[in-house]
Amino acid sequence: MTARSERLASLDAGGAERVHERDFAALSERLEGEGVSAETLVAEVQRFEVALPSWAFATGGTRFGRFSGTGEPRTLREKMEDAALVHSLTGAAPRISLHIPWDAARDMDEVRADARRLGIGFDAVNSNTFQDQPGQPLSYKLGSFSNPNPAIRRQAIEHHLQVIEVGKAVGSKALTVWLADGSNYPGQMSLRGSFERVRECLEEVYAAMPDDWRLFTEHKPYEPAFYATVVQDWGSSLLLAQALGDRAQCLVDLGHHLPSVNVELIVARLLGAGKLGGFHFNDSKYGDDDLTAGSIKPYVLFLIFHELVLAGRERLPGFDPAYMIDQSHNLKDPIEALLQTVDQLQQAYAKACLVDHARLAEFQASGDVIMAERTLKQAYETDVRPLVSEARRRRGGALDPVLAFRASGYRAQKTVARPAAPPGGAPTHL
Ligand code: RM4
Ligand code: MN
Ligand code: MN
């Protein structure tokens, strides 16, 4: 633990508040000295919101194994309870993103009533043609939208139409499509034909969406396809979004890039094209590792937010990114990992808000490389934790959500209330 959180942990609630207030006052004074209003920044951080993935509340796994924790949610209602808790502690995660059919429910009225009672809403709905479901007539083993068999493509389209119906029922405003389609060996699949078929199917899905919805296409370089993935990169994703129309945009999952790819540059390109739809936040060292956002490359996360804050301040046409988390919690308590993630995102966002854009533009124009870089570092190296804690507090959240969660006894209580699901019974992130 850092000194600050150690201090907060060792104090009673009143003591922690006092330490926080002192830290916040000191930071505010420092910022005011630099001509920055702490109040304005707190208000900006208070407006930051991110959606929680329903599939991240149970322990994830790898193809080698899964080591589940206790008290994990077994039903959509239980996942929504956990989501509501994350929102109450952070004040920044008011919506859950559903994955169909993992979250398919018989009674949508009940789902809506649960959400109302818990005070949460619904974000983008996600389709799934990367697995075969029990009783499904045709297999996606060799692709869904890209499959040369029209009956398989039809089945995949029908699935997406059902996902849209679920989304309509809960009040979603977007559909995220990630396809596992691809091939493992040269010659297995027509490289051009497969892409054309994906585009054609997506056109039909796009046409079926309500007018106020957006469609997000999500690229990924490899896995499960190990030779050629149909929507493998942001270029493919952009081609699709451009072919579909104004309400189709690209979703950037931070882990869906090969090592050393410049993700903030991709974000800038998509922003420039008016096609940046949103994010799946996570972090990675090697591939689609789905680790906690900011855990491996916090500076990259900041640089991405810098592009976003800049685009927002410049009022770039069509700028309305959907912020979502996509993580797999194999080792950490899923709720703790999500609390940590939201905090990391709030910090990266707050730091990006601190960048002096006017000075940066001057240094860029005069070719002062060092001072331009220092302008970014100046913001990045500011300890914004008191500011983020204050924003959380004003939205009814906790100063330190992870510590508050541990003190609450929630997991122990759920361990009793939610005995382990039978094997294969609990849908989860793979
Ligand atoms: C994929 C991709 C999708 C997510 C699935 C579970 O790798 O990131 O967004 O829906 O995992
Ligand atoms: Mn994703
Ligand atoms: Mn992924």
Protein described:
The structure is a single chain. This protein has 430 residues and is of the alpha/beta class. It is built from 16 helices and ten strands. It has helices at residues 3-10, 13-33, 38-46, 76-90, 108-118, 150-170, 191-208, 234-244, 263-272, 298-313, 334-354, 357-366, 369-380, 385-394, 401-408, 410-417, and strands spanning 51-53, 95-99, 121-126, 174-178, 182-183, 214-218, 228-229, 248-253, 276-281, 322-325. Helix 11 (334-354) runs antiparallel to helix 15 (401-408) and helix 12 runs antiparallel to helix 13. The longest helix is centred in the N-terminal third of the chain and has 21 residues, at 13-33. One manganese (II) ion (MN) binds at residues 178, 218, 253, 280, 326.
Percent of residues in helices comes to 40-55%
Report the sheet-strand fraction.
Answer: 5-15%
For the biggest β-sheet, the strand order reads 1-2-3-4-6-8-9-10
H and E order: HHHEHEHEHEEHEEHEHEHEHHHHHH
Q: What about the largest sheet?
A: 8 strands, parallel
What's the overall geometry? globular
Low-confidence stretches: none
Number of strands: 10
Bound molecules: beta-L-rhamnopyranose, manganese (II) ion
Mean pLDDT: 95
Q: Mind telling me the C-alpha Rg?
A: 22 Å
Distance between the termini: 30 Å
Helix count from the secondary structure assignment: 16
Structural class: alpha/beta
